[in-house]
């Protein structure tokens, strides 16, 4: 593969000899993943939420995941976390920042984004947070390249929605990646989730069921 950082040129992503057929963001890949018996390779760790993906159609979920697998394998299907308290769950309705700072909150919000086929927004945000924690130059270069290929490239099925100004900034910064290469893009996606997805999440069956679940558990204890 040619180097992604060529002096004097903007980074335009990995070269490809064949452009894949365009696909709507709301369509699934034609790739079919055959289920292996009753084994659940991506068992949901968010078991205390009665509306998690465990109740979804298995074949549809597996096929959808197969088409959107990320190269950043360090990002788990859901983050390890404790069961949220009723106060925490109620606090998520008061502030999007509270929701995003809480691992359990991010998990349930991510489950909701899956139902809207926009989980890539959360995945991109998490990948940027992970990049900021890196110190090794080689690792930073490699992760920045993978983030670009996964979420910025127009050839990716997980491409996030960014304006032309932010894309131009990223292309310039990719000549010499750093932990802050995607800061502008991360803020834009955070704002998009806040303004677009968050209000619908608060009115969703997933959030209402979680409120009832933690309230019931609290009253029984």
UniProtKB/TrEMBL annotation:
Region (Disordered): 1-36
GO cellular component, one term: cytoplasm
Keyword Membrane listed: yes
Any one GO biological process: negative regulation of signal transduction
Membrane topology: Lipid-anchor
Gene3D superfamilies found in the cross-reference section: 1.10.196.10, Regulator of G-protein Signalling 4, domain 2
Main location: cytoplasm
CDD domains in UniProt: RGS_RGS19
Superkingdom of this protein's organism: Eukaryota
SMART domains (alphabetical): RGS (SM00315)
Subcellular location(s) per record: Cytoplasm; Membrane; Nucleus
InterPro entries tied to this protein: RGS, RGS_sf, RGS_subdom1/3, RGS_subdomain_2
Domain RGS: 95-211
Keywords tagged on the record: Cytoplasm, Glycoprotein, Lipoprotein, Membrane, Nucleus, Palmitate, Signal transduction inhibitor, Ubl conjugation
Described function: Inhibits signal transduction by increasing the GTPase activity of G protein alpha subunits thereby driving them into their inactive GDP-bound form. Binds selectively to G(z)-alpha and G(alpha)-i2 subunits, accelerates their GTPase activity and regulates their signaling activities. The G(z)-alpha activity is inhibited by the phosphorylation and palmitoylation of the G-protein. Negatively regulates mu-opioid receptor-mediated activation of the G-proteins.
Protein name according to UniProt: Regulator of G-protein signaling 20
Organism phylogeny: Eukaryota, Metazoa, Chordata, Craniata, Vertebrata
Gene: RGS19
